[in-house]
């Protein structure tokens, strides 16, 4: 009789553990569903901001490669502006946070539950970066790549030729060359003056002997 009771108790314990494991699995699934729902909600809000900024993204020159303008659908969806700045949702899942990574750490450029203030902050940031790049690109540019041209050949078709650009001479080198030329002219001038002076002295010294010949 006691053995029967022990068997029943063991079966009941196993059932309790199985029920507990099943309950834990259900709770984990529920938490997973909540995480998925939160992620989808964050992604939806990020896509709304991206749609609002699309006209700004389209106005940026295509050859300006410093921008990303992409949405990453990771654990925390983000709208990337460039490699150092992006927009993500705050902990409350309702506040937009426009952040930028710097050498001193991450800074919050703008934060708001509304789309428009964040959209304006991103637009101003893009404009400032474009102006900054234009200032850096001002002045003389030296192309470090050789130009490739294609020449049509009657027999073999188009052939590739590399056109090597002549080296760009800086203004400092030009001034040095001009200085050397001026120094050379000065030396030749003084040499000519010295020669004429020496010839005049010799002519005066031997004038008595040479005067009968004139």
Strand order within the widest beta sheet: 1-2-3-4-5
Largest sheet: 5 strands, antiparallel
How do the helices and strands follow one another from N- to C-terminus? Answer: HEEEEEHEEHH
Broad shape: rod-shaped
The tally of strands reads 7
Keywords: Membrane, Transmembrane, Transmembrane helix
Transmembrane segments: 184-207
Write the layout of secondary structure elements.
Elements: H1 2-59, E1 70-72, E2 78-82, E3 85-89, E4 96-102, E5 105-112, H2 115-137, E6 147-153, E7 157-163, H3 171-205, H4 207-210
Antiparallel strand pairs: 1-2, 2-3, 3-4, 4-5, 6-7
Helix pairs in contact: 1-2
Based on the model shown, name its key terms:
membrane; two-stranded antiparallel ribbon; 214 residues; 4 helices; transmembrane helix; alpha+beta; transmembrane; 56% helix; 5-stranded antiparallel sheet
Give structural notes.
The protein has helices at 2-59, 115-137, 171-205, 207-210, and strands spanning 70-72, 78-82, 85-89, 96-102, 105-112, 147-153, 157-163. With 214 residues, it is an alpha+beta fold.
Quick summary:
The chain has four helices and seven strands. The protein is an alpha+beta fold.
């Amino acid at each position: 009789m006691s053995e029967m009771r022990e068997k029943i108790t063991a079966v009941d314990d196993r059932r309790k553990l199985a029920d507990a494991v099943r309950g834990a699995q259900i709770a984990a699934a529920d938490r997973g569903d909540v995480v998925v729902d939160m992620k989808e909600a964050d992604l939806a809000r990020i896509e709304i901001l991206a749609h609002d900024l699309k006209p700004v993204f389209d106005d940026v020159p295509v050859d300006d490669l410093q921008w990303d303008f992409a949405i990453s659908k990771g654990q925390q969806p983000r709208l990337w502006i460039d490699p150092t700045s992006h927009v993500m949702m705050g902990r409350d899942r309702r506040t937009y946070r426009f952040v930028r990574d710097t050498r001193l750490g991450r800074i919050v450029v703008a934060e708001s539950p509304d789309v428009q203030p964040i959209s304006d902050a991103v637009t101003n940031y893009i404009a400032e970066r474009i102006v900054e790049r234009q200032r850096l690109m001002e002045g003389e540019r030296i192309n470090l790549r050789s130009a490739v041209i294609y020449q049509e050949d009657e027999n073999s078709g188009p052939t590739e030729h590399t056109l090597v650009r002549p080296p760009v001479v800086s203004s400092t080198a030009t001034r040095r060359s001009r200085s050397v030329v001026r120094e050379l002219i000065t030396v030749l001038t003084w040499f000519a003056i010295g020669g004429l002076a020496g010839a005049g002295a010799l002519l005066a010294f031997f004038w008595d002997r040479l005067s009968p010949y004139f």
